[in-house]
Amino acid sequence: MPHKAFAWFILPSALAMLLFIALPLVSIVIQSLYVEHPQVLEQVESCSPFGGCTMETRVDAQATAALREAEPLGRFNGLGTYLNRSHLATGEIAEILRSSDGFADSLRQIYQLPFYRALLFTLCYTFLVTPLGMLMGFWIALAVNRIPAMLKGPVIFVSLLPMIITPLIGSLVIYWMVNSRGILGSLLQWVTQDPTLSIAASGPLTWAMLFLYGIWIAAPFSFVVFYAGLQTVPQDTLESAMIDGANRWERVRFVIIPHLVPLATFVSLVQLMDNFRVLEPIIGFNAQARATSLSFSIYNDLQAENGQLFASAAATSLLTILFVIVLLFPVLIRTWRDFSRKGAH
């Protein structure tokens, strides 16, 4: 393709990426360097009809509005937002390391910091849900691929239900079911003979329920991709393996899995990015007291009762993007090496 034709071909996509990715990212970087102006306070003398005056502190709404109008971005704070207690908390961590009673005590105190608490749950959710969801989707695809053709349609429809249902609605429905007054919650109380047992009141049970829900909604995407990939497996290769005496597990291990490795790389990239931004299950399960994520921290900053904390939300967003890049980097490097190796041949 001539260079001029290629430039016109790529121009719409380049403009869309500039408008919807690059410019918002630049605006987030700028916003993270500023903090909201505090309210302007003034001392006002208040006198009662019966005599006696007192000094009261009130918000000067006019002066506050004028200050925010003059500097709409807020007050320049540099990297202060990134380093404060709500984010990387460098000062607090230095103090913890200086005064802690040991490594375990240091980890316990660091976990109490909001950013690291959200980061720990986000990483645990990502590294558990991603491989288990892919594995579950792969085995569902293998099972569906072997059932009779007349049953494949209904089975595929049922397998895709978690993907069809809105994540927030799905999490709400399951939360009502596992609630202490729900059918699954009551059944769990009956099985354990503990009428006070509540998933919402237990941190480990809440985490486990969030992980199970994440696997449930992640499996359909993996299933669709792997099922489509199974239709492209060379039948002559499978037949040759059968003639050579390979059993079903050996055919899956030595023929099917190597054939699906490129698809598995693609699924892992998508699932890593999707799971790292976990938000809806935490809201649906009302689990923010037991589990919180980086995306929920952004949501919480934008829903703050004392005003939207744009700088804090922007800083958390950029830190989230940084962690996503770090997570994806090994997979991207491997993909690039495979592509370069194939290009060399």
Key attributes of the depicted protein:
mainly alpha, two-stranded antiparallel ribbon, MetI-like fold, 4 strands, 345 residues
- Spans with pLDDT under 50 lasting ≥5 residues? none
CATH topology of the domain at 116-344: MetI-like fold
Question: Which CATH-level-2 architecture of the domain at 116-344?
Answer: Orthogonal Bundle
Q: What percentage of amino acids are in beta strands?
A: 5-15%
Characterize the main sheet: 2 strands, antiparallel
* Structural class computed from helices and strand pairing: mainly alpha
CATH-level-4 superfamily name of the domain at 116-344? MetI-like
- What average pLDDT do the residues reach? 87
Question: Can you give a write-up of this model?
Answer:
With 345 residues, the protein is mainly alpha-helical. The protein has a domain at 116-344: Orthogonal Bundle (MetI-like fold). It is 72% helix and 5% strand. It has a two-stranded antiparallel ribbon. Helix 6 (114-146) runs parallel beside helix 11 (203-230). The longest helix has 35 residues, at 310-344. It is globular, with a radius of gyration of 27 Å. The two termini are 23 Å apart. 21% of the residues are buried. The chain crosses the membrane at residues 7-30, 115-143, 155-178, 207-230, 251-272, 309-333. This is Carbohydrate ABC transporter membrane protein 1, CUT1 family. Its main location: membrane. Keywords: Cell membrane, Membrane, Transmembrane, Transmembrane helix, Transport. Residues 119-331 form the ABC transmembrane type-1 domain.
